[in-house]
Amino acid sequence: MSFIESYKHLDKICGEMFETQYGVSAYIEEMLNNPHGSFLVRGWENDLKNLKYYRRIRNKLVHEPDAYEEELCDAEDVEWLEDFYYRIIDGEDPLSRYYKI
Question: What is the pLDDT of residues 24-48, one digit of tens each?
């Protein structure tokens, strides 16, 4: 799967979680609205940082005419997006873990 396809996959599931069209942005916003998450959930800050970073890459790819996947991302980026998707499916993503606490 390409970066943009993996991102869209993640964006869709995040949108379904929050019943919005803003997918990953809604997930990020929810993390920002729960500032204690970083104290309670291991890896919270790293996941938040990565989600923001990958959203920026997605925005560049979609909105900037001379932006190309080959230059902005690699297989590890795609792997991270897919891993995060499956963490949501398994209830092991930061927000799911936060809500369990």
Answer: 999 999 999 999 999 999 999 999 9
Question: Are the C-beta atoms of residues 95 and 31 closer than 8 Å to each other?
Answer: yes
Cβ-Cβ contacts under 8 Å for 84 (sequence gap 6 or more): 10, 47, 50, 51, 93
Query: By CB neighbour count within 10 A (0-12 exposed, 13-18 middle, 19+ buried), where does 19 fall?
Result: exposed
> Mind spelling out the 3-state secondary structure of 77-91?
HHHHHHHHHHHHHCC
- What local confidence, expressed as pLDDT, does residue 65 receive? 93
Location of structure tokens 């291991």? 42
